[in-house]
Amino acid sequence: MSRFDREAGEPRASGVTSSAGLSVLVVGSAAYRDESLRRSLARGFAVAEFVEDPSAAERLLPRCHFDCVVVEADSATDAALRWAGSLTGSGGMPRICVCGPDEPSFVSASLEFGAGAVLPRPLQARVLQQYLARTQPVARTARRAAATTRASTPGTVRTRLVGDSEPIRRVRAVIERVAPTPATVLIEGRTGTGKELAARLLHELSGRHGPFVPVNCGAIPPDLMESELFGHARGAFTGAHQQRDGLFVAARGGTLFLDEVSEMRSDLQVKLLRALEEGSIRPVGTDREVSIDVRIVASSQPGLRERVRSGDFREDLYYRLNVVHLVLPSLRERPADVAELVRHFMLRVADEFGMSTVELDGTQLAGLQAREWPGTCASCATTSSARCSWERRPRTKPRRLSKHPLQRVTRSNGRSRT
């Protein structure tokens, strides 16, 4: 019986499933090659990353938050054990586990280096889940502290999602939860619901030091898309007069946002899948592999799952992108946010064009909030911009609101009318 088994005893049955929302990093060559373990951890955890050695882990840890790091070691004098000990003082990293032989000298050395538990070898997903179920409150507290630190640091987060309705609070909570992890995220929502805004917020809260690089997969001609993403060598095709790195390289160390990924051609879907699985790309016209360190966030219109069923989008790529699924609500699903959105958009237009701020009274705001908005936040922005453009000074009387939010406000003989 391992030390972990002696300390933990039999966990409650419900504790095993409580690890479904957690992230884990496993460091060690044996686990790295264990496909069965990979599948087991992928089913039991929100994020399960594997690296072969501590040097690879050191490149990953500054950019990503993990609830637990499991380090494989062979003996009490293994350098990996000493490296694990160096992590125990890191903020936001409450649980360090060591996986190795169940020998008194090894267990003693592991605990001296600060390991929270010594797990039996070979590593088993069930045993790790049991340990994390017992200590999950500690990780939750550390995760919230890390998120609070990032959010309170001046200049760290510039993007925000406007509104405080229940749907937008749920979206914000998911973003704050998964942003520090390396998980790919698929954002679904209608045009104008703020998919790129959500992707930018994910990047800003991630702690990644590279740039945020957006690309609209539906706006680039299919013949140029491969070169745009993966780059090309000089002379790779007609017109390729010089080498181009591509967007994957441009986003190195940061986030690549693939907007409208559903519009990507099938042969490019295969190459994107390979890049995600292998962590490397091959520029057009070359045989060399270029390693990439990029967090992928993709977006699409609602119904991508139906496109998978119809064969228009690869199922394996869908599941590779859909590690975390984020659905953005339309405006009609968040009427409580309309008033705040209108104020936000009108203030933005006034600042952009150097106009005086237009104030709407309670009756006007109530009328906007009571509307059955047929569109998205983009339609609200258009309505707010039009009203701000025409009403250059605050009104003393509430004006009649148009039935349709996109009806233009015009001027005739110096008088305003709808």
Question: What do these coordinates show?
Answer:
Helix content is 43%, strand content 14%. Strand 4 (96-100), helix 7 and strand 5 (117-120) form a beta-alpha-beta unit. The chain is an alpha/beta fold and 418 residues long. The longest helix is centred in the N-terminal third of the chain and has 28 residues, at 125-152. It is built from 18 helices and 14 strands. The chain has helices spanning 3-8, 13-17, 29-32, 35-44, 54-60, 79-87, 104-112, 125-152, 166-178, 195-206, 222-230, 247-250, 266-278, 304-309, 315-321, 338-353, 362-370, 377-390; strands spanning 23-27, 47-51, 68-72, 96-100, 117-120, 185-188, 212-216, 255-259, 280-281, 290-291, 295-300, 324-327, 410-412, 415-417. The chain has 3 domains: 3-149, 3-Layer(aba) Sandwich (Rossmann fold); 166-329, P-loop containing nucleotide triphosphate hydrolases (Rossmann fold), CATH 3.40.50; 332-417, Helicase, Ruva Protein, domain 3 (Orthogonal Bundle). It starts with a helix and ends with a strand.
Rough outline: globular
Helical content class? 40-55%
CATH class of the largest domain: Alpha Beta
Q: Strands of the largest sheet, in order across it?
A: 2-1-3-4-5
CATH topology of the largest domain: Rossmann fold
The helix/strand class is: alpha/beta
Give the CA-CA distance, first to last residue. 80 Å
Kindly report the oligomeric state of this protein.
Answer: single chain
**Cα-atom radius of gyration:** 26 Å
Instruction: Provide a count of the helices.
Output: 18
CATH evolutionary superfamily of the largest domain: P-loop containing nucleotide triphosphate hydrolases
Low-confidence stretches: 1-18, 150-157, 392-418
Question: What does the main sheet amount to?
Answer: 5 strands, parallel
The amount of beta strand, in percent, is 5-15%
Query: How many β strands by DSSP?
Result: 14
